[in-house]
Specification:
The protein is of the alpha/beta class. The protein is built from 24 helices and 18 strands.
């Protein structure tokens, strides 16, 4: 297909209108056709760019217009000493080279390395950066989480974008940022500027991403529009939406099914731990939590958001019609299709002023086989913890706020204990991750089956190890104490700031101090901090002495000479962080601590005694990871409370 027929296949839509009328499309098509006629030579070849391409290190061999030839790329790489002559001959010897795809993609698949001493791999991003420098344009890696697809797809049609190998990635009141992998193909620029009434800023991105996201963005936008046309969006934008029991858009509509499937798969690809679907006054918002930080991903019309929520509730076997009460559900699926790993998704709905808010928490069953080092334990802490969990009886508590990694630590621990010789039973609300080696029971408040009732039933099941999801009230605390006194090892969780506070919490729940001393054997407090990306973390001078002293107080430690800071690269999506690890504070009960508990000491006195016996506070645990280059001081200060109140 020549340039004229490809561009005429469809006209760029005006960016400022989200649902253009047919007359507008006709005017746009006419304008695009006129611009193409004015800028096309008799042979149909594009005119040379106004500014010739600039070489990165050496002058270009000749002016390049139109699409990028493989021969030009290979010869320029040789001139710039990025490719050896022998490797260049191998490429040029391939017959019918152009049909294999974009020249950059073809070369990247061959895994060449630079001929110099560094032997740098010529991967897709490296070659794209080289091409951007050669063309004198900025390089841009497309981060789909930062692209508002609902706006950029209105700049031009899918066929137009595909025909010129371009993709709009940002729209502002003054300009449109367009990614291209054909930097010398410029005839479309003036057309888009005249139609959109905005300045076009070109950036160079790799051809694989452009092709992939062009398909995904436009297909998703088409599905959203198709779902919107199925039924008008709910016109109510106030609290009355709560009592609307029907959805204008059907949950089983093919468009809605595709949108939900795509969002779930995309969340798996981006390592999201939670998906938030939030109805707002004018738009529904989809956000992903990645490494503990929320990122807005998409905005969809309210009617489509309601249909998406209904679809997910249907998959989770929840009551689709009931929207006035909070509900819980779960979905088990596979990440990456039929052959991918199994993933469990816990669902929770909440009625809000503009409709149902849905949160999906994603659990990867592989976390139950993580080592203590992966969880953030030091060698010494891992040894102490291993000794604690192998005692025949007693209570072991894991404490921290929601999202601090308690579930992961408990499941990893129980997985090690659940052998053929040991009966491990749990009472949970809800069951976070289903595991075949555990006997798991979920509480059912509707039939008056709570933690205490479940624990009472488990006592008659000949258990060796019991895990209670959370000690919430006096009855549950008393049953846990009774289980420990009768020779069982009991694990549970509490919501407290640090390890020592768990003792005070048990006393507040009504457990006598002498029973706390008789049953409690250890408390693990933890927090999660983001870890620095190993590919791009940057070394810098150490912190000032005052900041470091405040971090490790009341301990004393000289500040490190060097620490690491986030930089940002493609691996970490320019955030500087990749993954999370735990900060650990482990309190082991001793005779001296029991004496203090028995006489009702102050909480700070208990902390200080534990510190004298070897306890390291959460911030000291974080300081160690700062010295090792795992995380930053800012992350530790954000996540961990000070040792003293």
């Amino acid at each position: 297909m020549n340039q004229r027929s490809r561009a005429e296949a469809t006209a760029p839509a005006q960016q400022t209108t989200h649902d253009p009328s047919e007359s507008q499309k006709e005017r746009t098509e006419h304008a695009a056709h006129s611009q193409r006629a004015a800028h096309r030579s008799h042979s149909g070849q594009a005119k040379p760019p106004a500014k010739p391409a600039q070489a990165a290190a050496q002058p270009v061999q000749a002016a390049v217009t139109g699409r990028l030839p493989l021969v030009y790329v290979v010869r320029q790489l040789v001139v710039d000493h990025w490719l050896s002559k022998s490797d260049a001959d191998r490429v040029l010897a391939i017959g019918d080279r152009e049909r294999y795809g974009h020249p950059i993609a073809v070369l990247a698949e061959m895994n060449f390395r630079t001929p110099d001493a560094h032997r740098r791999l010529l991967d897709l991003e490296t070659l794209t950066q080289w091409l951007a420098e050669k063309a004198g344009l900025p390089y841009q890696h497309i981060d789909p989480l930062r692209v508002d697809f609902t706006r950029v797809v209105d700049v031009m049609s899918s066929a137009y974008a595909t025909g010129y190998s371009i993709l709009p990635i940002a729209v502002t009141p003054a300009e449109v940022v367009v990614a291209t992998c054909e930097p010398f193909l410029e005839e479309w620029v003036r057309e888009i500027e005249q139609i959109s009434k905005k300045t076009v800023k070109r950036v160079v991105a790799n051809p694989v991403d452009i092709a992939r996201y062009t398909t995904e963005f436009y297909k998703l936008a088409q599905q959203v529009k198709g779902a919107s046309k199925t039924g008008a969006a709910n016109p109510l934008s106030n609290f009355e939406q709560l009592v609307e029991l029907g959805s204008k858009v059907e949950a089983n509509d093919a468009h809605v099914i595709h949108i939900v499937d795509w969002i779930l798969q995309y969340a798996f690809d981006q390592r999201a731990s939670d998906i938030h679907m939030e109805p707002k006054r004018d738009q529904g918002v989809v956000r992903f939590r990645i490494d503990g930080v929320l990122h807005q991903v998409y905005q969809v019309p309210p009617g489509v958001m309601h249909a998406m929520t209904s679809r997910i509730k249907l998959l989770g076997r929840m009551d689709v019609v009931e929207r006035r009460r909070p509900q819980d559900g779960r979905i088990k699926t596979r990440a990456g299709g039929a052959g991918g790993r199994e993933v469990e998704i816990r669902l929770s709905t909440l009625p809000t002023a503009f409709g149902e808010k849905l949160v999906m928490r994603i659990f990867d069953p592989e976390v139950v086989v993580r080592s203590y080092a992966e969880l953030g334990f030091s060698d010494g802490e891992a040894k102490i913890w291993s000794e604690l969990i192998r005692r025949p009886s007693g209570i072991v508590l894991v404490t921290g706020p929601t999202g601090s990694g308690k579930t992961t630590t408990l499941y990893s621990t129980l997985k090690q204990l659940a052998t053929d010789e040991v009966n491990v039973s749990t009472v949970e609300d809800p069951i976070e991750m289903v595991d075949g080696t555990l006997n798991q029971m979920q509480v059912q408040p509707g039939i008056e089956l709570g933690f205490a009732d479940g624990l009472r039933a488990l006592m008659r099941q000949d258990p060796d190890v019991i895990m209670v999801g959370e000690v919430r009230d006096r009855e549950t605390a008393e049953m846990a104490v009774q289980a420990a006194l009768t020779g069982h090892l009991v694990f549970s969780t509490l919501h407290t700031n640090d390890a020592a506070s768990s003792v005070a919490r048990l006393v507040e729940l009504g457990v006598p101090r002498y029973l706390v001393n008789a049953t409690l054997i250890g408390v693990l407090a933890q927090r999660l901090v983001r870890t620095l990306c190993p590919s791009c973390k940057a070394e810098q001078s150490g912190p000032d002495e005052t900041m470091w002293r405040d971090l490790v107080a009341p301990w004393r430690s000289p500040p490190p000479h060097t620490v690491y800071a986030p930089a940002g690269c493609l691996e970490c999506r320019r955030t500087g962080y990749l993954g999370r690890t735990g900060l650990i504070e482990l309190l082991v009960m001793s005779d001296a601590i029991r004496v203090l508990i028995g006489r009702g000491c102050e909480l700070q006195e208990l902390r200080e005694q534990a510190a004298r016996e070897g306890l390291r506070s959460l911030r000291v645990s974080g300081a160690e990871k700062v010295v090792l280059g795992v995380t930053t001081i800012d992350e530790v200060l954000r996540a961990a409370p000070p040792f003293a109140d």
